[in-house]
Amino acid sequence: MLKTFALFAVTAVAEIVGCYLPYLWLKQGKSVWLLVPGALSLALFAWLLSLHPTAAGRVYAAYGGVYIAVAMLWLWWVDGIRPTGWDLLGCAVALTGMAIIMLAPRTP
Fold it and tell me: With 0-12 CB in 10 A as exposed, 13-18 as middle and 19+ as buried, what is 15?
């Protein structure tokens, strides 16, 4: 489970970077060349999601919980905005949902 969570976290960073770099170009007037590493980061994101052995829909659903938590860390560390108590509660709910999806007993 820890390996899966770590893979989800790396995947989330790749997705956020892939979206953040075009944002910098579009909204903050940064170099258009940011689109190149942004596209590579999104390709890495897609490849990382493919590494999970379970059904894609279940992986995407569980990944969403980790993505939310990593996005809140990004908000704090990169944007310099400390998450509110409501933000943290939302992360806890999302991670609880992720745990339910990933840890539920499965029948073949």
Answer: buried
Domain ranges of the chain: 2-103
Report the alpha-carbon distance of residue 71 to residue 68 in Å, rounded.
5
What is the model's pTM?
Answer: 0.83
Tokens matching residue 15: 């997705």
Structure confidence by residue, pLDDT tens digits, 8-27? 899 999 999 999 999 999 99
pLDDT in tens, 33-60: 999 999 999 999 999 988 877 767 888 8
How many whole angstroms separate alpha carbon 61 and alpha carbon 84? 24
